[in-house]
Prior knowledge:
Helix content: 25-40%
Structural class: alpha/beta
Strand order of the largest sheet: 12-11-13-10-14-15-16
Largest sheet: 7 strands, mixed
Distance between the termini: 36 Å
Radius of gyration: 27 Å
Amino acid sequence: MLLRRALQRRPITTSLKxxxxxxxxxxxxxxxxxxxxxxxxxxxxxxxVDLSARGRREMEHAAQLMxxxxxxxxxxxxxxxxxxVTSTMVLLAELRQTYRPVVKDxxxxxxxxxxxxxxxxxxxxxxxxxxxxxxxRASFDDRPPEMPADHTLSPLRERKYDGVERARIPxxxxxxxxLERVRPLWHENIRKDLLAGHDVLVVAHGNSLRGLVKEIDxxxxxxxxxxxxxxxxxxxxxxxxxxxxxxxxxGESDVISGEFLEERGLLRTALAREEKRRTGDDEDAPxxxxxxxxxxxxxxxxxxxxxxxxxxxxxxEETPEPSPGKADAVLATRRKRRHRRHLRKALPGEPxxxxxxxxxxxxxxxxxxxxxxxxxxxxxxAPEGRREASEAGALMxxxxxxxxxxxTSWLSRAIETAWLALAPLxxxxxxxxxxxxxxxxMYGALTGLSKKMIQQEYGDAQFRKWRRGYAERPPxxxxxxxxxxxxxxxxxxxxxxxxxxxxxSAIRSIAHGRIEEHPALPRAESLxxxxxxxxxxxxxxxxxxxxxxxxxxxxxxxxxxxxxxxxLCEIPEDRVPxxxxxxxxxxxxxxxxxxxxxxxxxxxxxxxxxxxFGTGGDLLFTxxxxxxxxxxxxxxxxxxxxxxxxxxxxxxIAADLEAVQRVEQFYGVRGHLAAPPSSP
Length: 680
């Protein structure tokens, strides 16, 4: 809890270097992409629904607009709701900036619509009339009826708010309430980052973004009701610094000072048109030779292709087809009893079980498939790697695992593995701590080269020393090579825990015509070097989280994980190279037996026999007590896992019905919104 609070309330300025002195940063506001409930026209509020397929494409499009204009971000703020967090993930992946620090703060959540959440907007408008229904959504001071605390969708039941004082968690909000909780985040965090010269991206919701717009532009209470921020179109604010205060640079609009990067209304119509025109022979077909395009060129080509659709729509009377209405979500949820699966808590008199440490190697990458040395090169996950990561999350969910914090590297393959694994666990709101110390081993001049080519050119003995030798470093990469991490912004911007390289500082100061301090980044690493940066990080940082009884996930690369397991399992250094770490397999460290365990997935043969852990694999799975009967698998029917129908279900069903009845009574439409619940 303390870790989450520290991560969420501290301005990101503390982890960034100062940008241009005296020049404030740029602020980009972005409303999340279309959610599944947006498409169904349901009151959503704090209900944690995900993006629709169209919503993901909206976020990719937003990233392409930013790439076209050359916008980068130094820091990102978002809410703890899945549709905003997923929007952030999709956007950063398209920008190739997954390593950026992301703060997830509940104060950026959407307005809480109380007992209206889960109800159909169309049905309510039909019963009340369009004008009254519009006032419910847009009125500045009116609150809807509160959601019952025991309701299935109540935030009081969600673990993501455990670190928030109960009295601060709303059960219904007016627009004023929502804007008031956003204001402190602006003054305490975002504003300070901008004053420090850092470019900030906020990915949030329609009403929480209204709060920021109101604060920045000084819009009065009555006028803010009419301000709308559309899904997926970046709104850019620029500032000047006057007497150490931010002053917004006025734009062309009389209402807001920010600039939308695209005209409102075109994108959704274009996306709908695209879905109908995927025939392969139209003018929006992929650019010839697209496979050879760089990622940036591919993104801009997609943007240009979509703009041809915009041109077709110019002057057209065509409007997006409305999404089909759906039955009220609350009516569906209260018809089900919910099975809950979780780790059994200690009984009275029993000692508390140790915290969980789950370790997973990133999913398979294109470099893995092609047999290339990867190291610190930012190779993306292959499609099967994404599938491996999602399946790992689903397996952890099947075993009832709950996590509190995630540690990963600055390499996108590990970050995306963490993202994809958290989704099936319904825990994308968790803090993800990124550090270069969990990066893969730095392969120096071998980076990006074929392993078979190196083996053939230098012989098997030298190849093995470079690839598997404990203390043997490969040839160092040139500091002028694109593979040298000192030429990558993520390391020069965020790596503060390294000594200064006087030689590289001198070279770069001369080249750039200004004094620069350059960190002493590795140009090549042995397996020993890699382990000597991983182990202290575990002891100094990860172990502290475990000591606070937090359940931890570490998503990293093979050699970093080797170093971690060498420390945890007390493996001799001469045996460490014998260990293989398969991709996408969650491994639990058993603190009592000082060994690794695997999650049973119900398949035969079992994971220990099915996956290759190398000739030294037994070193991972042998318990400290050398119990010959020890099973390295955590079975789905183990005693410490509870699978039961939750005793609270009857209370939930009653609260769900009460919420609908509150709305009917409050707005005078008794008996029109609810149907009697069916038997479970």
